[in-house]
Amino acid sequence: MYQVDFNLSNGADEVIIENADGLEIDRVEYDGGSNFPDPTGASMTLDPTKFNTTDNDIGANWCEATSEIVTGGDLGTPGEANDGCN
Q: How far is CA 81 from the centre of its chain?
């Protein structure tokens, strides 16, 4: 059974993706702002220009979302492609 409902911390946390046999496929361990972005009211976004060529566990490959979500004024792109990083 696959678990797809989870919550992410606003500080340090990790995301681990495993296959049905429990074999780890990918892992991202982010911190509370030392190496990874730590935005308030915005999502962290993996730079789409580096998505297929660079590790997603390097904080410099992430940035803050810049697109405004229609409701609430927060920034992010739920269900859409990530914003680019400047």
A: 12
Residue 7: φ, ψ to 5° = -120, 150
Q: How far is CA 6 from CA 2, 3, 16, 25, 60, in A?
A: 11, 8, 11, 17, 25
Report pLDDT for 11.
Answer: 81
Q: 40 Cβ partners below 8 Å, 6+ apart?
A: none
- The residue that leads in pLDDT, 85 or 1, is 85
Q: In whole angstroms, what is the distance from residue 67 CA to residue 60 CA?
A: 20
At residue 27, the 3 state secondary structure works out as strand
Rg (CA), the chain: 14
Structure tokens at 32: 């509370």
| Global pTM value | 0.74
Q: Which of 27, 40, 31, 37 is nearest to 12 (CA)?
A: 31
